[in-house]
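Lab intake sheet, docking and co-folding queue.

SAMPLE TYPE: protein with bound small molecule
LIGAND NAME: zinc ion
LIGAND FORMAT: SMILES
REQUESTED OUTPUT: full 3D complex as structure tokens
PRIORITY: normal
SUBMITTED BY: R.K., bench team

The fields below were copied directly from the construct record.
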Amino acid sequence: MRQPEEKIHNFSNALLAARSQVGLCQRCFHLSSDPECEICRNDQRSKDLICVVADSRDLIALERTREYKGRYHVLGGLISPMDGIGPEMLQISSLVKRVDQASIKEVILALTPSVEGDTTSLYLARLLKPFTKVSRIAYGLPVGSELEYADEVTLTRALEGRRDME
Ligand SMILES: [Zn+2]
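RESULT FIELD (auto-filled):
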């Protein structure tokens, strides 16, 4: 428990990658051993709703709530000029392409309430609003807290309480 958070993150990422044979879904970039992940292949899930998350751990946290019935898009991180991470290093152009090519009713941004999360949300809202409605989950979590550690009730409320981006 005394390990720095970063180290634990890297370790859990490595575990997840190992379990899925280090593959990514071609559509949403979630960890997957098949070209398309189970969620993208599931016809029961609505195709016109995309929830954007920073990484697969956040996706798994949201799946635990069993509330969300749409698809996902995994960015692979957040925009962070301090760490030299620009938009071009994330799965952003692939997201815009998805939204542009299919009729998407709503894009839900489920990014942490941090400087990086806010920066990325504003950037994505500006890009995507010409195409579709963009909302952001409104969770009652302290600034900087990690989505993956939030409990199911908090995440369910966060999804239900999402607000349109201005
Ligand atoms: Zn997928």
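REVIEWER NOTE: The chain has a mean pLDDT of 88.
SIGN-OFF: pending second check by T.M.
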